[in-house]
Structure formats: structure tokens, C-alpha cells
Amino acid sequence: MSNCGNYFIVLAVSVLLIGGVFGGPVAPLDCMNESNGNSTEEALKNALLCGTGYNTHQRPVKNQQDRVAMYIGADVMNVELIHNTFAKLEITVEVSMQWYDAYLHWNRKAQNGIQTLSVSDQDIWTPKLAAKSLSKSRVQDIDHCFQVKCHLSSDGEVMYSMLCTFTVDCLENSQHWAFETKDCPLRIFTPEYDINQVSLFHFQRRLSYSVAGVLPYKITSFQMAIVNNSVSPEFRMDIVVERMVGPHLVVFLILILLLMSLNLMITWFRIDTTVRAVLSIASLALHVVYTIILFWYASTKMEPASGLAKLVLGSLIIALLLMGELVYSINIIKHKSIDVPHVLQVVHQTVSKMAMIRVFVKLGYISFNGQLIKSTTEPSMEQFSNHVDEMEPSTKDTATIEHVDSDEEEVDPAKLKWNVFVQPFDRLIFCGIATAYILMLLVLFLA
Questions:
Q1: pLDDT of residue 410
Q2: At 233, is the pLDDT very low, low, confident or very high (cuts 50, 70, 90)?
Q3: What whole-number distance in Å separates Cα of residue 157 and Cα of residue 106?
Q4: pLDDT of residue 347
Q5: pLDDT of residue 362
Q6: Which residue has the higher pLDDT, 129 or 391?
Q7: Bridge partner list, 141
Q8: How far is CA 113 from CA 12, 101, 152, 225, 279, in A?
Q9: What is the pLDDT of residues 325-384, one digit of tens each?
Q10: Are 235 and 188 in contact (CB under 8 A)?
Q11: Segment of 29-38, 208-217, 251-260, 295-304 carrying the highest mean pLDDT
């Protein structure tokens, strides 16, 4: 128990020690000691509890077929995690109860206007309560409660309150990224009575609970309900706590975004360069490893990571498509033949004629002054550039390639080198990948 829990125990003990000065528990009545009648209140207690045959073990109803209607409620005072486990909570609640005792009432006028009395819970009938969390949890007696207060009204109403600390078992309920949620139910019931003897109702008042948080958890919901069944009526508290597990999931998301950026960057390097091959292979390998890690993490550690795992799986499919494009291109370049399907030639001619996207599809590739960018087929003294007219064309294709950037002349796709032919497709692939990623992120965060 933390310092907060110890504080409540110390406070309760202090109240017990200084007794009635601060309205603490009242000592049991000693009917054999006549000194109890020195005051009007003590005399009234004697008249109600001594020599009247009042039985503290018998339900306070005149007709044994009647039920005791009991109102019950609870306010959470403190919640904290049990050390060495994240599946249990320790909760301190103030349990309040109210019922009518058919034998404990008086005429106020005849008793000098006394309206309420403070009595000991040992002198009157009180329900025997027990607490339990889950079906497999142990039953906890309420004998350990402290700061018990009991008040009688002239009409027989009993107001009873106490502070109790319970151990609550929790169930994992991770449904929302990126939070870990625990459902912690607590049942307070009367094991000695059934629905025909005691009926429970809860106070209609605003629920209160600690909002400071249960480090590293925070209470997000606290609901009370009454369950009256044939076995035993019970008062149920459903406490929902959650903690943000975002820090490590955010790291996963950042790594996924980096892999996405890598896939987008690949299309900006020429198809016949070493850097594109290296980036494609690295992207595919990283995607495979990371996909396996995330699916394992989602199945064994944290369910919210399953959304991220599906996201990286979609990015892996894109990495596979980019690798397929690279392998296909290498095969064409190696055989020094275009052999482009007629459909691709038609698409190339179409996008080249569209004024709206012509500027974008003709954007050049990224070029560095280094050996990393050199061609994988024929070495050259000059590095590849953004512009088609800076490549070394054959004599046969010189006139055609010099006019690739011209808006007035059309270029026959079949006469272009593959690394020139694929450039518009790289730009279209870039747009398609970016659109797919936007859709996947929207599905992840808005679903």
C-alpha cells in the first residue's frame, strides 16, 4: 500500500482514539451499568435497547414475511495498484447504507425533542456484508472496515457508514488504441439473506470517484448497480481504469511512417541505379521483420497494436510491388530490349499528352555526385541527371530524345530507353502510394 493508503489508515486510527469528540464510533451500550442513564440520550438508548427484548440478530421487521428495504451507495476515496501485479487494485470506499428499524423509534416531543442518536453498530441489527470481485476471487469479509458511524432517527431510520478497503481483481479490456483498459468489478452482497428478506436499492445521487489517477492508471468510469436475485442481493461497482500505452505504440507508429517515407522515396531514384536497388531491398527486409514483430506484439502483449500491424502489412505489400517493378526493370535492361506491353505504351502516350500532369510526370530523378548512383549496366564518366537529354543516346535515337521535354513533338515510347520510359510511371506510382497511405492512416485513426 502506498503512502496515500497508509494515510487513510492512520487517519482512521486517530479518529478511533479520540472517539466522540469528532463524531467517531460510539462505544457499545452496557445495559448492566446503570450509569448509562445519566443523560437524556443515554436514558433513551436504555429505553430502546435494554430490557425490550431487542435482538441484534433478527431482521428489524414486525412481520417476518416483510423485506428490509436497504439503500446503499459508495464513494471511492482512494485507488491504487497492488505491488508486483497489474491485475489487482486496492480500493478504499466509503460505504453508506440506510434502512428502517421497526423497533427503534420514539416520540420526539416525549424525549425533549431528540431527533437523532449516535449508537454503536454492535447494539443494533446491521446486515452482514461480504465482498467479492470475480467469480474465482476470494470472498472478503467486511469485519476489517473502520471509522464506522451509526445514527438513529426518531422515525426508525438508520444511517450507517464505514470506510472499507478491498482488493479487486481486474480483467484486461484493451479495445482502443493507444490505451490499456482494465475492468475491475466489485460486488458487495449479503450472504445471510436472500431477496425475500433484504432488497437493495442504491442512492440516487451523483457518483464521485478519484480523478487524480491511479498511477500509471486513471479512473475513467465508475458505475453502480443493484442486482436482486434469488441467491443474495448484491451491490455492484464497476470500476474502469486505463493507462495510456502510447509511448511505445507511438514509437512503432513513427517507425512505420519512416518505412512509408522510404517507399515513397524509392520512386525518386532512377530504375537502373544502385541506390534504388539498395533501398528497395532494405525496405522489403525491414518491412518483413517489422511486420512479424508487430503481429507478435499484438497477439501476446497489447491488442491495440493490431491496428499498427495491419498498417505495416499494407506497407509491406507496397514494398513488394516496388521490388517487383525493380526486378522486372532489371530483366529488361539486362536484355537491352524494351519489350514493353502495348498497354503501357498507350498509358505512356496518354499521360504525356495531359497538360494537367505533364509537368509532374516529367519531374527528374534525384541525382547525387557519387559512385552510389552509378548505372548498374554501363559505367559512365558523368552521373545520371534529371534530364533525359543529358543521357548518352545512341545515334539512332538522338533526334528523338533531344525533344522529350518539348511540348510540340511526341515521342514514340518504343524508341525510348527503359530508364526514360519508366519515369512517368514512377511519378504515377508515387501518387498511388501516397494516396494508399493516406487512406490506411484514416482507417486506423478514424475506425
A1: 55
A2: confident
A3: 11
A4: 73
A5: 75
A6: 129
A7: 130
A8: 32, 20, 14, 38, 91
A9: 999 888 877 765 556 677 777 777 777 777 667 777 778 788 754 433 444 444 433 333
A10: yes
A11: 251-260
Instruction: State the residue for C-alpha cell 436514558.
Output: 43
Per the listing, cell 530483366 goes with 331
